[in-house]
Queue: 3 jobs
Job 1
Amino acid sequence: MGFYDLEIHSTVSIGENIVEEMAHMAKKLGLNGIGIVSYFPDIIEIPKLEEIDIVSCVMLKPSSAGELNQLARKSRKKAEVLLVHGGEYEINRAACENPLIDVLCHPELGRKDSGLDHICMKAAHDNNVAVQINFREILESYKRNRIYVFSSIKKNIKLCQKYAVPIVTCSSAVTKWGMRSGRELAAIAYLMGLDLGKAIETASTLPETIVSKNRDRLSGKIWEGIELED
């Protein structure tokens, strides 16, 4: 079993450390792979390193559902993992309804509710879109806002369990000091309400499966029966 963190920010995006420094820290933490994030359209080639599996992750930050669908088609063939910056309900729902999306990040961001409902969850299940537990959001929240974050994440976990929607836990680190080991990420998921086995899966088998399946699909340039044009 390997541990994967699918949202790591280096100087490629909004982070403070270069990819090699993040990879070195990941190795020390016992991670097998990390997702280095770039934001569409500023997608650059992520260096591959022998010491750890580097995953090319593209974050979409659309202003509308229509824009999300357009960006997803344009960036899918360039990303090993396709992430969506969640928070707005319209964006959350559109991400759940789009089979090209892999992970909806922090759907509760900036809200006083969880940002998801049964409509989103049914769509996420049908399209195999994972919902993220974001460690940095928990870490940086405080006072009353932290109460909203905790309750919203717990509610979303219950919804995911009810509708059999996959969950992944990520550090969303912007410095090497913000990174966490796989077991620490699993511990966060456990504290948020998952049983221990399922919590470990959110930082191991589930993200690793997303990466593996996408690499297989991208190698043939075919996505769920759709041929991606250059």
Job 2
Amino acid sequence: MGAKQIASPLNFETVWAALMENREQLKETARQMQETDRRLGKLGKRMGEVVEYMVVPNLREKFRELGYDFPQTHQNSSVSDRANNIFLEIDAKLENDDKVMLVEVKTKPTIKDVQDHVRRLKKMRKYADLHGDSGLKSSGLKSSGLKSERTFLGAVAGVVMKDNVKEYILKQGFFVIEPSGESFKIIPPNNKPNEW
């Protein structure tokens, strides 16, 4: 028969040592979890960038198929108007003399993302009106207080899109941009696109 091992009796020192060892293990586990969260956050941001670089270069052709001709495309542009407190970032902006399409690109868009895009379009409308935006044919001179001659449209692009989010996007009068086979497709709003 094998010898029985006798456990050391519990006392304050042994309990305290066990708690301290457990505490160190918990700290290490927490550190590892934070590192994992940080890496996943970077991955999520990178995935968003991948989506942008896959979608944006082909947007003009896809919108042309729907009857919209946008000769200019800008990626990752922003507006910073301190005087009027208007600040916004735009993932993709397509322009012609009459219309400007602002595209929000997300890996997995949410209803909040769509609501933010509505606010973005309202800000862009206000900014354009304040600065007399008159399209690509303008001479580049801006007159304060002139209403913009162009209309603004919106679109939301996403790789993974829940049905309720897609329906919400369409109800807001936005175009939906989503994967389709090796490329992507654009779904126009249910009715006429909302114009700002």
Job 3
Amino acid sequence: MCFHRDARPPLPPVAGAAAEQGDLLLTAADGNRLAAYFARAADPTGAGIVIMPDVRGLHAFYKELAQRFAEAGVDAVAIDYFGRTAGTGPRGHDFDYPNHVRQTTVEGVTAAGLPHDLHVYEGAPHSFFDRTFQQHADASADAWRRMLDFIARHTPARV
């Protein structure tokens, strides 16, 4: 998902807390290293989510989004999938993302074939999922609810 440079994820009703969170490096099976950020739920539901940032990599927006999921009981990790071509460092405003987009391959980012849901918010701008964008607050809140409902429907019951 994309967002305005100063955007912040919506603040959903907080049911819990993030037990721990932080930056880490992941190592792929082929030895490639990818920057990542994790947030673990203090009261996990058993669900987890991988957040795929836009071309800016692990921007604070995605780290905070991972924290919001953890607060909702969903363990989260955001990964910077451009690590194969751009390394593990932060992305500046002058990051040459088109060059890295052209290098993205199916082999480098594999489709999982998992259940999914697609919803279009007519009239909402490209990056409406942002608590600072008040004129689309209802769409943003609905998107958050839909995500949590989807996760709940596809998370096996804990025993």
